[in-house]
Amino acid sequence: MIRSVVRGNGAALPRRTMKNADFEGMVETSDEWIVQRTGIRQRHVAADDETTASLGEAAARAALDSAGMTPADIDLIILATSTPNNTFPATAVEIQNRLGMHHGFAFDMQAVCSGFVYAVATADLYIRGGLARRVLVIGSETFSRILDWNDRSTCVLFGDGAGALVLEAQEGAGAITDRGVLAASLRSDGAHKDKLFVDGGPSTTGTVGHLRMEGREVFKHAVGMITDVIEATFGEAGITAQDLDWFVPHQANKRIIDASARKLGIAEEKVVVTVDLHGNTSAASVPLALSVAVADGRIKRGDLVLLEAMGGGFTWGAVLLRW
Ligand code: ACO
Predict the structure, then answer these.
(1) Which of 44, 210, 250, 278 is flagged as catalytic?
(2) pTM for the complete prediction?
(3) Does the annotation count 103 as an active-site position?
(4) Which domains does the chain carry?
(5) DSSP bridge pairs for 165
(6) In sequence order, which residues have a C-beta less than 8 Å from that of residue 152 and are 6 or more positions away?
(7) In this predicted model, what pLDDT tens digit does every residue of 13-53 receive, in sequence order?
(8) Which residues line ligand 1 (CB under 6 A)?
(9) Tens-digit pLDDT profile for residues 205-220
(10) Disulfide: which of 97, 169, 200, 279 matches 207 by Cβ 3.0-4.6 Å?
């Protein structure tokens, strides 16, 4: 059977970093509060000339380099983002043009922080359905542009950045030992919209709006939703937590990551944590975490890797793949 196999990965971060202490003169907060409640120590913040498209392009080029490919090899680009350069056209098409690619097709996918997990699951279907052989899956965000910088309960949590994977169709045996995407489970429930949303949009206010979040409410739901969707994915693949080599969760909050891993019985040393370095970069967080764990030699070819995310909507999902 056809499998969607990871051929390369890449990342890009804005030049400027902001430490927790940099917020102390802006809002009533402290490095100690932010570290204790979230695990975040710094985040990258885009300058005016750094956009979702430019960061996405840089991450895509890095992923193509690591795959030993050029844009000519790619059939499809899926960009997961909630902070597009324009309301339309899709920023994926802008990235396609920046890459000098005038063949194939490109579209954006909007599932907030779950966007990258949704995009990998979608790319896998395009590949297995025979509509594309090589897909660039990108998560790129500039949440700094939609933050209310006077709201201490949200502005300290988010950062900007981008990450990308190149997936390629390869023949597999249909077994759990195959490389590539092995199982996926996606969920959403719009009843929770008011707990995490942006208070503007083209069809309502005609403005971009700002991120609003009832953090405590999101937290209350997060661990249960994450563990449910992961257990569904384990069930589909016929594995248990012990079989995993690496757990690469969405990087929103270290306490949510720890509680989810504990509930699932995933050993602490198998959990990739980068929330301290990047903050919550929404759809970019999972591919950025992957890039760190691949670069430092933890994730290697043949490893069984579980990706997971949960975010606005609510949306949530998990993808199991063999690297
Ligand atoms: N500095 C200092 N104090 C603060 C800050 C801050 N930056 N922000 C809030 N506080 C205060 C609050 O006002 C509150 O004060 P009060 O007790 O006097 O009312 C107190 O700290 C505790 O606030 P809580 O909201 O209860 O703090 P909590 O421990 O829940 O941590 C946090 C807040 C970090 C937001 C947490 O709830 C969280 O991580 N939630 C989930 C976020 C998440 O996972 N989002 C999903 C993905 S995001 C996406 O999809 C876009």
Answers:
(1) 250
(2) 0.97
(3) no
(4) 2-171 (3.40.47.10), 180-322 (3.40.47.10)
(5) 9, 137
(6) 23, 27, 28, 29
(7) 999 999 999 999 999 999 999 999 999 999 999 999 999 99
(8) 29, 33-34, 37-38, 112-113, 152-153, 156, 196, 215-216, 218-219, 222, 252-253, 256, 280, 282, 310-312
(9) 999 999 999 999 999 9
(10) 200
